Predict the structure.
Amino acid sequence: MPYWRLSSFYFFYFAALGGLVPYWGLYLKQLGFDPVAIGTLMAIPMATKFVAPYLWGWLGDHLGHRMLIVRIGSLLTAATFVAVFWVREFWPLALTMVLFSFFWNAVLPQFEVVAFNYLGTQVPKYARLRVWGSIGFILTVGALGVLVDARGPSAVLPVLLFIYAGIWMASLTVRDPQTAPHEGGQGSIWSTVRRPAILAFFAACFLMQVSHGPYYTFYSIYLEGHGYSKTLIGQLWALGVIAEVFVFLQMHHLLNRLGPRAVLLATFGIAAARWLLIGGFPDSLGVLLAAQLLHAATFGAFHAAAIHLVYHAFRGRHQGRGQALYSSLSFGAGGAIGSLWSGLAWEPLGATLTFTVATAVALASLAIGWRWVSRDLSRGQST
């Protein structure tokens, strides 16, 4: 398995998230956009994630050559991102974000299939590859916090362009693995999707990401409004991902011991507690530090358990579209709805009540998962 080549792709891909998620909202605020406009623009990368992964996943499943798709998508991401250096108005910026995020969101699900094919029977060790994405996020968010403090939020633009170019260069080093022939006699992918346990799984993941809306869209703006420096804000983001790294390193043990369903359900409950802490105690640095440590569960453990379930539920020629559906419905549709509703709610409801609503949404995901996501899902059995 080409461990370092696979890891380098994850490093650059999630380094881009380390620039975009914490600081893009601050950049949009610097341009003069109000919370509704910021929420709408921040929803665009999530909305394109709803469409792009499945479209490119269909191509990958039917045409093969997944790494060619990854390389093309990565190159077009960097090329279209260049336009943000010149656009400042809402609609031109929105169009630019649609273009670069459409290509950017296409590549990860295809790369995940490639990584799992290299892993073969060692699926629980996926987290040891993915941990390098967390390291890339940590380094980027920490360095950018200092840079943004010194030069303002526009400093994020050249850094992101460099990182997008790095994703493309990393993709050039990875080849498609040799894979076994697809399982014969597979039915339509929708025969799998229609299973009650699968529908409940996707619904719970969707709501989990909806609950993240206020955090991903306004967390940095929220802390800035309470007097925290951008350097400290960056360090808080980094702390969450440092905690995530430790979870990723132990994730194969947790999955083997507890099972992916139990891990998944625990993350829903922890997310509910996290939003209550952030919304209720913004002036307590100690509480904010504790809440950021919970990111280990609400992203790290959640994603590792979810992707494990997807891998076992969608096999053979359905792998690419299975990964794409998970990405599209959770981080795509869920993330977009989360950004939109939080943008609409932020001023009329206030931050505390907005995070309280997020808590209720996370508890709804827990209720759905507890009732309908079966234990057999991790073994690919029907219910």
Notes: The first helix runs from residue 3 to 30. The chain has a mean pLDDT of 89. Residues 3-176+190-379 form a domain with the Growth Hormone; Chain: A; fold (CATH 1.20.1250.20).
